[in-house]
Specification:
- The chain crosses the membrane at residues 23-47, 67-85, 97-119, 125-148, 183-201.
- There is one protein chain.
- By secondary structure, the protein is mainly alpha-helical.
- The protein has one domain (18-247): Rhomboid-like fold.
- It is 59% helix and 4% strand.
- The protein has helices at 18-36, 41-44, 57-60, 68-89, 91-120, 124-127, 134-147, 163-175, 185-202, 229-254, 268-274, and strands at residues 152-153, 158-159, 204-205, 210-211, 257-258, 261-262.
- The strands form three sheets. The chain has a two-stranded antiparallel ribbon with strand order 1-2. Strands 3-4 form a two-stranded antiparallel sheet.
- Helix 4 packs parallel to helix 7 (134-147), helix 5 (91-120) packs across helix 9 and helix 7 packs parallel to helix 9.
- The longest helix has 30 residues, at 91-120.
- It is globular, with a radius of gyration of 20 Å.
- The model is unreliable at 249-275 (pLDDT under 50).
């Protein structure tokens, strides 16, 4: 696998992959479609009250950008971040990540909107059209945090491992001053969390035949400052046991290690974690 490009300089705007260019065309085409046919938003965006029977909007909503600013920003970010991630993951895994995370985001947003309606009885939660690629882009930031955590963006001198946390912090701060936050904030939050769960526990590593990333540098507490990690770790460990306890037990039963030595082909980090 090739090394990801440096985060800075003119290299940000060159070397885009064919797959990312194709996905960019999809985003632009979908934007043009809803501009030419505005009623299409009612069928393609996620409108919780209409998701049943229009269940396909759980998939299509993530690719519908309703504003010109949204489609331009999403297209540029897709091209730039995609050329970092696709060479590392491979094209098939890159597409799989987008599809799975997009679907999980829509499910979570749908459940959240229905819950908020029953709590507040405000119908706007049921009929607000929610769409956009921002959830996937949030997931891409998590992926970049995973593969090049200590790489700095030359313009800002910020390490890549802090990109997801800063993005959420800024989005939450802006939400206090804008009425439209309900249309994008849940998508960003779920995009970050669902992508971390997928990469942490379920993404298959072809070279090792194992799943996920058990490293301490990619733990849930790594999204928070060092001073908060003693508080976050005990809470995160509960969800860790829920998500992968059974998986770890079953893999240990099959025996990836023999005594203290790793069997051929097993991942040393994974073996250490299991021991």
């Amino acid at each position: 696998m090739s090394s990801p490009p440096i985060l800075g300089g003119a290299s940000l705007f060159t070397g885009f992959t064919k797959l990312c260019k194709g996905l960019a065309v999809v985003l632009v085409t979908c934007h043009i479609l809803v501009q030419i046919l505005p009623p299409a938003v009612n069928y393609l965006a996620l409108i919780p009250a209409r998701t049943i029977p229009f269940v396909w909007n759980l998939i299509t909503a993530g690719y519908i950008e309703q504003s010109i600013y949204g489609v331009v920003a999403s297209t540029l970010c897709l091209l730039i971040m995609g050329k970092l991630l696709e060479p590392v993951w491979g094209s098939k895994e890159f597409l799989k990540f987008i599809f799975i995370v997009n679907f999980l985001i829509s499910i979570c947003v749908f459940i959240t909107a229905i819950s908020l309606y029953y709590i507040t009885r405000q119908e706007n939660y049921l009929y607000m059209p929610i769409s956009g690629f921002q959830g996937i882009l949030a997931g891409f930031l998590v992926g970049i945090k995973q593969i090049i955590p200590d790489q700095e963006l030359s313009l800002l001198r910020i390490k890549a491992k802090w990109f997801p946390s800063l993005m959420l912090l800024i989005a939450i701060a802006i939400s206090f001053f804008t009425a439209e936050s309900a249309a994008y904030l849940p998508t960003l939050i779920f995009g970050t969390y669902m992508s971390w769960i997928y990469l942490r526990y379920f993404q298959r590593k072809p070279e090792t035949k194992l799943r996920g990333d058990p490293s301490d540098d990619f733990a849930f507490s790594s999204f928070f400052p060092e001073s908060l990690r003693p508080i976050i770790d005990p809470i995160a460990s509960i969800f860790h046991r829920m998500l992968c306890g059974r998986f770890e037990t079953s893999t240990e039963a099959h025996g990836d290690t023999l005594g203290d030595a790793s069997l051929p082909g097993s991942d040393p980090i994974e073996a250490t974690r299991r021991r």
